[in-house]
TrEMBL record:
Region (Disordered): 74-100
Protein name (database record): Amidase
Residue ranges occupied by any Amidase domain in the UniProt entry: 27-451
Family matches, as Pfam families: Amidase (PF01425)
NCBIfam families: PRK07486.1
Origin organism lineage: Bacteria, Bacillati, Actinomycetota, Actinomycetes, Geodermatophilales
PROSITE patterns: AMIDASES
PANTHER family hit by this protein: INDOLEACETAMIDE HYDROLASE, TRANSAMIDASE
Stored InterPro entries: Amidase, Amidase_CS, Amidase_dom, AS_sf
Length: 474
């Protein structure tokens, strides 16, 4: 079996192959390390690589398999961690020169759960500075390139993770999402990213454990891979006050038909967001698939009044809480967009936060009522196609000027404010050959439902099977 075939197989298949001893963990790792050596100079997705540490872990995984000891669901699979997630004994930079030499003492929870599931850590994936913004670049490592079009953005902030998956550098990855950081790069790189219901994947350590705006979650090349990753990452933790009980059957077989499913299609989220016509036409060309799978589709959207205020206020408050002191101590070593967002947070009053919380409650109630009528909501994941890496962020969409550096991602930030799980699944390609993502949104805590719908669409369309051109040329 060639490295090409091995490194582009789904994680679910690779896990089964390791268990059946069709391939050893060491062989699987060596194939991926060789591919990283060949392709990562083109993509710049892996910013820290520990080949020898990974080899030792892979050998230990093979020894564990030979001993007959119990195995985790990801036993022997290479994994790369987002460079904002602390990895014990491995550099974690947050994409900032202030942390170029930071080596945490221990793994944070999302990393520890993947390790406990048997995954073999190979390194860290690139991020924007402190994960701020949906385009992956920083002064330490430079920009991550889209595997489907060199010189174009891989999205962000989990852009290194998405690009690594698309390029076949790792079969398993994870990230985080406040305003689209799991969904946006998945859409740009033709892979799958899930923003789970807040609390489904507990985050620890964190200074803001009660906040529901930022979540962590899995990424993969298929929906089944993401479901497998979620089954490992999900589950309560007593240190995390919003953590949820495990949802049963997360990794159970997913359906390929959707008989009776009630689908709402919101191409512009009720007229609230401008969208590039190339994105809309690409997605609309595939909407008929849902009818063929047994679903009914209507154009409709929940009332998202107040969602912008909720997201903007709570994000700014979190930025001041997380970065305010840092910005004041090192203003010249933190990028301007972070300084701006932290300053907005510092200027908030108690009344501002109270209004946002009231609006948040009302928004949630309206969204829950909407999902009494529909099972899922479909919308574009991103409002634009991947753009050149030299562009820090889009300043207009379809002729509409944007207010700030996150406004081009309102198709995701509005959904973040609702507390709903949201999946980005490959939705097709523009006429110019750039990936487009379809966002599948479910009722709060209905994480399994969005996976089911995404899987059925994925299997019917096959968009995720289209690999980057260089993957067949090396």
């Amino acid at each position: 079996m060639s490295d090409e075939d091995l490194c582009t197989r789904p994680a679910t298949e690779l896990a089964a192959m390791v268990r059946a001893r069709e391939v050893s963990a060491r062989e699987l790792l060596e194939a991926h390390l060789a591919r990283i050596e060949r392709l990562d100079p083109l993509v710049n997705a892996i910013v820290t690589l520990d080949s020898e540490g990974a080899r030792a872990a892979a050998d230990a995984a093979d020894a564990q398999l030979a001993s007959g000891a119990p195995l985790g669901p990801l036993h022997g699979l290479p994994v790369a961690h987002k460079d904002t997630h602390q990895t014990g004994g491995m550099r974690t930079t947050w994409g900032s020169p202030l942390h170029r030499d930071t080596v945490p003492a221990r793994d944070e929870l999302v990393v520890a759960r993947l390790r406990a599931a048997g995954a073999v850590r190979v390194g860290k994936t690139n991020v924007p500075e402190f994960a701020a913004g949906s385009h992956t670049f920083n002064t330490l490592f430079g920009a991550t390139h889209n595997p489907y079009r060199h010189g174009f953005s891989a999205g962000g902030s989990s852009g290194g993770a998405a690009a690594a998956l698309a390029a076949g550098l790792v079969p398993v990855a994870e990230g985080s999402d406040m305003g689209g950081s799991l969904r946006n790069p998945a859409a740009f790189c033709n892979v799958v990213g899930l923003r789970p219901t807040p609390g489904r994947v507990p985050s620890h350590p964190t200074a803001t454990a009660w906040s529901q705006l930022s979540v962590q979650g899995p990424m993969g090349r298929t929906v089944a891979d993401v479901a497998l990753g979620l089954s490992v990452l999900a589950g309560p933790d007593p240190r995390v006050p919003i953590s949820l009980a495990a949802e049963p059957g997360l990794a159970a077989p997913l359906p390929t038909e959707l008989t009776g499913l009630r689908v709402a299609w919101a191409p512009t989220l009720g007229g609230r967001v401008p969208v590039d016509p190339a994105v809309l036409s690409t997605l609309e060309a595939s909407l008929g698939v849902f009818g063929e799978l047994g679903a009914t589709v209507e154009e409709d959207c929940p009332d998202l009044t107040g969602a912008d205020e909720v997201f903007g206020t709570l994000r700014a408050w979190l930025f001041d809480a997380s970065f305010g002191d840092l910005v004041r101590r090192h203003p010249d070593q933190v990028k301007q967009t972070i300084r701006w967002n932290a300053a907005v947070g510092a200027a908030l009053t108690g009344a501002d936060l109270a209004r946002a919380e009231v609006a948040h409650t009302r928004l949630y109630e309206r969204v829950v009522a909407f999902f009494d009528r529909y099972d899922v909501l479909l919308a574009p994941t991103t409002q634009v196609l991947p753009f050149p890496v030299e562009t820090e962020y889009p300043t207009e969409v379809d002729g509409v000027e944007l207010a700030d550096y996150v406004a081009w991602m309102r198709s995701c930030t509005l959904v973040s404010a609702t507390g709903c799980p949201a999946l980005s699944v490959p939705g097709g390609f523009s006429p110019d050959g750039l990936p487009v993502g379809l966002q599948v949104v479910g009722a709060p805590r209905a994480d399994r439902r969005v996976l089911e719908v995404g899987h059925a669409f994925e299997q019917a369309t096959g968009f995720g099977l289209r690999r980057p051109a260089f993957s067949t040329a090396v």
